[in-house]
Specification:
Distance between the termini: 20 Å
CATH topology: Rossmann fold
Shape: globular
Number of helices: 7
Largest sheet: 6 strands, parallel
Order of helices and strands: EHEHEHEHHEHEH
CATH architecture: 3-Layer(aba) Sandwich
Number of domains: 1
Strand content: 5-15%
Strand order of the largest sheet: 2-1-3-4-5-6
Number of strands: 6
CATH class: Alpha Beta
Structural class: alpha/beta
Length: 204
């Protein structure tokens, strides 16, 4: 039987050492998961084709023992990756953190940021196709995320069937926004948050 694997896709302008990723990776390894937490290419200027292709190369075996955790632009990367996998293949589940399909207008300060965002917000995405591979997911949002409009939660809920959680005053869930997912950040809090994405059942 394949080993349970969690693939962690970080946010734009992040690294594998940013925010809560090292804690989560370590906790999952201690609980018996294999964790893949790749440094995504050109994280300061993420491109759809490069990130999706890189993810497909990292995930050599995909199936019901494969789970994903995405943060920010990593969430959309996972969804776009799911569009590409073989028909009939189901993964274990996804935990989305601060995922988005649109961005708040006042969050884009430079022309470079707007140009980068235009590709991700303007390129069509087939949520129905992605959902065929996604039996369960949880989407976590905050009510003061400067990047993500709360209206996007409807696309996760209706388009992907995600269980929705709104955590107050956590911003974009980065180190600058009290980057812990839950206070205190521990396996019990993560299990409660992640209930419904498939990963939590193996944390008992």
């Amino acid at each position: 039987m394949p080993m349970k694997t969690v693939v962690l896709v970080h946010r734009g302008r992040g690294t594998t050492e940013s925010d809560w990723y090292p804690w989560l990776s370590g906790m999952l390894v201690r609980r018996g998961f294999k964790v893949l937490a790749p440094q995504m290419p050109d994280a300061d200027e993420p491109r759809i084709s490069a990130w999706v292709q890189f993810l497909s190369e990292i995930v050599e075996i995909v199936g019901k023992e494969t789970f994903f955790v995405g943060h920010g632009i990593g969430c959309q990367t996972i969804i776009r990756y799911l569009e590409t996998i073989e028909k009939g293949v189901e993964i274990g589940g996804v935990f989305f953190v601060a995922g988005w399909f649109h961005l708040s207008l006042n969050s884009l300060e430079t022309e470079e940021e707007r140009r980068m965002a235009d590709e991700w917000t303007g390129t069509p995405i087939d949520l129905g196709l992605a959902r065929e591979h996604l039996p369960r997911s949880v989407a976590l949002f905050s009510n003061n995320d400067r990047y993500v409009p709360l209206s996007d939660l409807r696309m996760f809920m209706n388009g992907l069937g995600s269980r929705i959680i709104i955590h107050p005053k956590r911003g974009h869930f980065t180190e600058d926004d009290r980057g812990d997912i839950l206070p205190p950040l521990n396996s019990n809090s993560f299990r409660n948050y992640c209930k419904g994405c498939g990963i939590s059942r193996s944390l008992c």
